[in-house]
Design brief:
Rossmann fold; seven-stranded mixed β-sheet; six-stranded mixed β-sheet; 8 helices; 17 strands; binds NADP nicotinamide-adenine-dinucleotide phosphate
């Protein structure tokens, strides 16, 4: 297979790592494209990044987009070219996730949605036009870890309502946001002013921002919050599921955490929920009883440090609502660049190959 990655920022670098580790039958190194050609070193290996141009997509079987969104973004500029040259596109960006007919896929949750790629016909991508049905959208990072955790519970006790808060790392806003946190923290620790705010509109170092992004939309919710609501409904095939969420940016470099409250159709005791999640694909439960050195009871739970650089979605703090037997809390942590983006995209590609949608 020939595989192309467009974009070599926070997600693109992780895409290359995930491809090196994947079971995909690659003929050669992934071809990496960006706005400017240069050399990039990942884990000690230097790769040649080429400028994204039409001719680079020739012969590609799968093209992963990890570029920025919008009019000048990689997917709007190159999706048609890649598809018309015969490739399947898997896009990390949000441009077309909610378009009718576009599969929005988390392999542990809705892999069968990929079957639409086997059907003839076209799909209308706004700003791009009608293209053959060879485009798959990768969901938002916070959505992916949420649906991986709640789907196994939904299958047993039906989720009637979701109330969640996210604690999102700066890498979720791209490589420039990581640099901004580094610079601000360094300056403040050296007695200086935090400096210019470029990516986050307020100081992020040693602070908490109650808007993981700052594009406020309908009824006071941010664009990130609406993405989680709409995408979760689409992936779970529950178009009316009530979901309300507050997205928060925290001064953590990598891996997002979420406190998720589920209201279920029927009671589900925490121990049963733990067992369901222990047996679910892609999940590691970290919720074991322990004792502190003074003998007081304690339970393990995952942190962003545990999840960063790793593949699973970690779940802990699984407990019932003391005032509602149908209420259940989960604490869900995952690497937003891996399972929240690059790894999920590569798993989609692996599923596409397994289903022989791309023949190798
Ligand atoms: N960060 C996350 O946790 C996360 C999670 C899920 C989804 N996503 C999505 O994944 C995408 C990438 O995010 P990121 O965080 O990696 O962003 P990033 O760090 O800002 O990197 C963006 C990359 O895209 C390239 N690029 C932008 N426009 C391009 C164009 N027209 N043609 C070719 N290359 C182009 C840039 O090229 P240059 O290097 O040459 O400038 C850069 O390498 C975004 O759509 C984002 O919303 C991110």
């Amino acid at each position: 297979m020939k595989v192309v990655v467009v974009g070599i920022g926070a997600v693109g670098r992780e895409m290359v790592r995930c491809l090196w580790q994947s079971s995909l039958p690659l003929d050669e190194e992934p071809l990496v494209l960006a706005r400017t050609a240069r050399e990039v070193t990942i884990d000690g290996r230097t790769i040649q990044v080429r400028e994204a141009k039409t001719e680079e997509f020739k012969g590609a079987d799968i093209v992963f987009f990890a570029g920025t969104e919008g009019e000048k973004g990689a997917a709007k500029q190159f999706a048609r070219i890649a598809i018309e040259q015969g490739a399947i596109v898997i896009d990390n960006g949000s441009d077309f996730r909610m378009v009718e007919g576009v599969p929005l896929v988390v392999p542990e949750v809705n892999p069968d949605d990929l079957e639409v790629l086997n059907s003839s016909g076209t799909v209308l991508l706004p700003g791009v036009g009608e293209v053959p049905r060879r485009y798959v959208a990768n969901p938002n990072c916070s959505t992916i870890q949420m649906v991986v955790a709640i789907k196994p519970i939904h299958d047993v006790a039906k989720v009637k309502r979701v109330i969640a808060s996210t604690y999102q790392a700066v890498s979720g806003a791209g490589s420039a946001a990581v640099e901004e946190l580094e610079i601000q923290a360094h300056r403040i620790l050296h007695g200086q002013e935090p400096g210019e705010f470029k990516i986050h509109p307020l100081q992020i170092a040693f602070n908490v921002l109650a808007g993981a992004n700052w594009k406020f939309e309908e009824v006071g919710y941010t664009n990130e919050e609406w993405k989680i609501i709409r995408e979760t409904r689409k992936i779970m095939h529950e178009p009316n599921l009530p979901i309300t969420v507050t997205c928060v940016r925290v001064p953590v470099f990598n891996a997002h955490a979420e406190a998720i409250y589920l209201e279920l159709e029927k009671p589900l005791v925490a121990e049963e929920a733990r067992e369901i999640l222990r047996n679910a694909k892609g999940i590691v439960v970290m919720d074991e009883p322990m004792q502190l050195t003074d003998g007081s009871p304690y339970r393990t739970y995952p942190t962003p440090i545990d999840a960063s650089g790793r593949d699973p979605v970690y779940v802990g703090r699984i407990r019932n609502d003391p005032f509602n037997p149908n209420g259940l809390w989960l604490w869900v942590v995952a690497d937003n660049l891996r399972k929240g983006a690059a790894l999920n995209a590569v798993q989609i590609a692996e599923e596409i190959v397994r289903r022989k949608i791309v023949k190798v």
